[in-house]
Amino acid sequence: MLKKIPSLVLSALDKLKESNFEAYLVGGCVRDLVLDIPPKDWDIATNAKPEEIIKIFGSENTFYENKFFTVGIKTENPSLGIIEVTTYRTESAYSDKRRPDQVYFASNLEEDLGRRDFTMNAMALDLKSSEDFALIDPFEGKKDIENKLIKTVGSAEKRFGEDALRMMRAIRFHAQLGFRIEKNTLEAIKKNSQDIKHVAWERIGVEFSKIILSSNPAEGIDLLRQTNLLGYLLPELAQGIGVSQNHHHIHSVYKHSLLSLKYCPSPKLEVRLAALFHDIAKPQTKQGQGKQATFYNHEYLGAKIVKNILRRFCFSTEIINKVFLLIANHMFYYNPEEVTESSVRKLIRKVGLENMQDLIDLRIADRLGSGTPKAKPYKLRHLEYIIEKVSQDPISVKMLKINGNDLQKNLHIPPGPKIGAILEVLLAEAIEDPKLNDSEKLTKRALELDKQDLTELRQLAKNKIEEEKEKDDSIIKKRHWVK
Ligand code: ATP
Ligand code: MG
User: Fold this and answer.
1) For labelling alongside 87, which of 198, 227, 322, 393 has CA 20 to 30 A away?
2) Which ligand is the nearest neighbour of the Cα of 91?
3) Hey, which CATH number is domain 2-144, 3.20.20.140, 3.30.460.10, 3.30.470.20, 3.40.50.300?
4) Span from the CA of 448 to the centroid of ligand 1 (angstroms)
């Protein structure tokens, strides 16, 4: 177990002890060491006060910005990040259920451990030497770990009353570790679920991401439902409960969403979010009943709804835009017998080559989550092959074998909007037929196009785009029907 502790962490403990302070590893890293899994971050608890910690490590190696007595030790080691050294502390009541009214120094380690959420997170490790250690475990956390139980330190009612986020943390640990939530703890979550509304969304967002990235994300989400937290956190997803689909689906919208998340082959947060939320607008867009129901445009409406959900959970713009793109395009049609290379180029142009694998992963998740896998994996492998094949073909103006400068030089067109319009038309034509992407052919065609005025050119480019859109739409409609 001790082998897993990085030497920088050991030396931080030693430094504190050499200055005659107590120092212990605490919290998540001790739990993970007992579980024999690699800890994600390292926390040290000490009786040294923040100023004393800063003095020991030097102000250039530390930073201290929050008011909760945690000093960060910089390590220069990216995989190690920051070692957090926190003075023993305790908390007063959380009258607003968001944050403690006041944080106090605690007099000893036991008191510090007692303010922690779950027994498995309330253990400390005393490293006496490189081989000799003692586990300090006043709340029998080790026993609960052996029994795979998530249990609050002290009264569950009281602990959730202090900080309602702990309810979500319990579910997050269930999803990560596969542990059961102990009976009283679970009952208390069900009873106090409405208190989650007092918790800041940034904190909820962190735990929600950890559920999504865990090894059992679908179980985590469904536990949110069973404990009545889902209705507040994700009413849009809860709307899909019991909403039946059409003859190509055996599951309700909600169940299909969970199964898509469960079977999502990608470890990426954004792809998993897209898998969970890709059909979020199906309840609103449903027309007709029974086997013939349709869900026209659910992907576009869904992408918009998901933007709001992800904003609420305080996700970064980058993640939000990516999930939006994946969901808006998840209905792309692909059938090796019908779909041409040019339509794959158009799809790549629309979605971006860098996003194609994620879009395919979303399709795999969708298919595996549908319960009636009809699209053969062969089709998707074939699509991967076509993507590879056409990825060198022109899909953006930048990939044309001619550029704005060439047009200025060869056609003597002055810089201005006409050049852009000519390039757009050239691209639209090269997407249809990549053989046209040849500098001689392009120059010849550009000379012809130059005879038209700007309005005509724009109209021409627009017509080509409209044609694409119409084709897309008819394909989408078809897919809605067959899906
Ligand atoms: P992870 O491995 O994901 O980092 P963790 O258990 O270390 O999980 P952190 O959020 O890093 O979780 O918190 C570190 C420790 O602080 C926890 O193990 C727990 O002892 C304590 N803790 C964190 N959040 C709370 C809370 N809301 N209420 C009580 N104790 C908490
Ligand atoms: Mg941690």
Assistant:
1) 198
2) 1
3) 3.30.460.10
4) 68
